[in-house]
Predict the 3D structure of the following.
Amino acid sequence: MKRLEERICTDGQVKAGGVLKVDSFLNHQMDVKLFWAMAEEWKRLYAGCGINKLLTIEASGIGIAAIAGLLFDCPVVFAKKGKSRNVSDDVYSTQVTSFTHGGVNTVQVSKEHLLPEDRILIIDDFLANGAALDGLIDLVEQAGAVVVGAGIAIEKAFQPGGARIRARGCRVESLARIASMDPETGVQFC
Ligand code: 5GP
């Protein structure tokens, strides 16, 4: 998606350790008009797929998924990190290794919000090693629901998550795919 790629080139900052900082429009300050354009793209790509629910993970996925929910006209569920007392014991639960912070988080969704008849589109901001997406797919499968696919804003295609998850048969639509990036030379797209 040209508009997202251009925004990454203009406002993204490549940090050491393979981290792209996009706090000015995606991860901290949010450009919701850009989110709407991203949602339109996912809506076009997944037209006719019968999606009835969006699933994301806190925190950075929530803003993007919420705007997409307006366009898909369906509920948006976010997986909660940690064993929250606000969520009942009746939860689907999985473990996710955090790319940005290291460490393992328990993530969970209340069973009442993921149903066997659901056809789910998973939304997230980044795809890197694929741990977050693996975890969300696991939650959907525990519910006996269908993962129609994933809508990712930025895929770092030089990391193995995207190839691995596509190879297991999950459709992944990433709006910007980064082939390589470097603090000196910037970002190259696929
Ligand atoms: P994965 O689980 O695929 O390794 O990483 C995906 C998660 O880590 C995303 O939910 C995102 O929050 C975070 N992440 C991974 N790479 C980056 C990055 O380069 N920049 C930022 N801002 N977040 C990232």
User: Anything to note?
Assistant: The mean pLDDT is 95. The pocket of guanosine-5'-monophosphate is lined by residues 19-22, 27, 60, 99-100, 124-133, 156, 161 (CB under 6 Å). Strands lie at 13-15, 19-21, 53-57, 76-81, 91-97, 104-110, 119-127, 146-156, 172-182, 186-189. The longest helix spans residues 32-45.
